[in-house]
């Protein structure tokens, strides 16, 4: 908060003056930079006024050291404001692995806000197709879970995709046990295989002997539990509210660090920012030391790798693709230099996209 927001000698709900910026600071900026600068000023003013409103509603004095809005609350407010403003300019349509109230739906809402229209589809491949055919502006798919590892369907689809990764989002996964009966009355638990796997120790301890039935999604599990006596579902808290189910046990996942990483699919890279990542897919010659040589190239160019995954090449036994996430944008000199060096090692590579790293 700004120093002038201290109110030791001002009325309790005094609204501080808006911070002004010297005109000279904008003299050498392009029109796009000027627009972004102005939008940042407006965003800051929106948050300032909401903070003021919160203090007025709580009958509290404004102090710079005791803001009422938490950082995640500020991010959520600005995300929704930007989303709604973007929709006024050009409505967007977002494809996601459905149905509604799935974890991918939550990730899409968290990333894009409430403004766009959302299109649930039945498979990861269908999300790619919706974007490739221009039926949707963006798509959201999971690529990695901290407990179960890579999402095979997504990596396989990248081997012949005509899209770019233009964003990412990390979503903490909290599984909820829900149903219409009491816990002691449960005979069957429904959920998708991954959710059951991520809760297997809790289930063995608290519901031993209960039948576990796999479904196509956690949302489908919630719907089945709604209609099936003496059953429960493992799904998101959002699904419990949507289907009118009682929460029988919250956060039953075995790992408290259960996080799924989703990527945003589009047709173009995102603009360069101060903190970017680039995802690369490459094939190396099938000979001793080729992977070590590739890793040495990244080390030589001081490129930090945040993720590396080997993946069997479809329909080619014994051959592998490598997926790599690296810090930096594809336009940076050190990234370009590293890619050029890889090509000289006879690596067949494809840049899947550059995008802002999720905070």
Task: Give a description of the structure.
By secondary structure, the protein is of the alpha/beta class. It is about 35% helix and about 25% strand. The chain folds into 4 domains: about 70 residues; about 90 residues, D-Maltodextrin-Binding Protein, domain 2, CATH 3.40.190.10; about 70 residues, Periplasmic binding protein-like II (D-Maltodextrin-Binding Protein, domain 2, 3-Layer(aba) Sandwich); about 80 residues, Alpha-Beta Plaits, CATH 3.30.70.260. Strands 1, 2, 3, 4, 5 and 11 form a 6-stranded mixed β-sheet that branches. Strands 8-7-9-6-10 form a 5-stranded mixed β-sheet. A 4-stranded antiparallel β-sheet has the order 13-14-12-15, sandwiched between helices. A hairpin with a 7-residue loop joins strand 13 and strand 14. It contains 11 helices and 15 strands.
How much strand? 25-35%
Number of strands: 15
The helical percent reads: 25-40%
Oligomer: single chain
Task: Let me know the average pLDDT.
Answer: 87
Q: What CATH architecture label of the largest domain applies?
A: 3-Layer(aba) Sandwich
Instruction: Quote the CATH topology of the largest domain.
Output: D-Maltodextrin-Binding Protein, domain 2
CATH H-level homologous superfamily name of the largest domain: Periplasmic binding protein-like II
Largest sheet: 6 strands, mixed
Report Rg: 24 Å
Q: How far apart lie the N and C ends?
A: 21 Å
State the shape. Answer: globular
Order of helices and strands: HHEHEHEEHEEEHHEHEHEEEHEEHE
CATH class of the largest domain: Alpha Beta
Tally of separate helices: 11
Task: Quickly count the domains.
Answer: 4
Q: Low-confidence runs (pLDDT<50, min 5 residues)?
A: 1-24
Q: Structural class given helices, strands, pairing?
A: alpha/beta
